[in-house]
Write a structure and sequence with these properties.
This protein is mainly beta and 70 residues long. The protein is built from 1 helix and 2 strands.
Length: 70
């Protein structure tokens, strides 16, 4: 999903969740640009990462929506 006004992403990292298929941290530019290619996942598998961000908006609402497609 593209960068949104009022939100500054500072880091993206795979979590230490057991069995997590995320083993290489996605980049911020990939996350906010072309997207993160996950590859084939079997039923019940997990790909989890965290996004660290700072809200820079001084008023209003900051909304950021991610989309997963198959």
């Amino acid at each position: 999903d593209p960068a949104v006004a009022g939100l500054t992403v500072t880091a993206v990292a795979c979590t230490s969740l057991a069995g997590n298929l995320c083993t290489t941290n996605p980049t911020i530019s990939a996350l906010q640009g072309a997207g993160v290619a996950i590859g084939t996942m079997s039923s019940g598998s997990t790909y989890e990462f965290t996004v660290t961000a700072t809200v820079t908006a001084t008023s209003g609402t900051v909304t950021n929506t991610a989309t997963a497609t198959t």
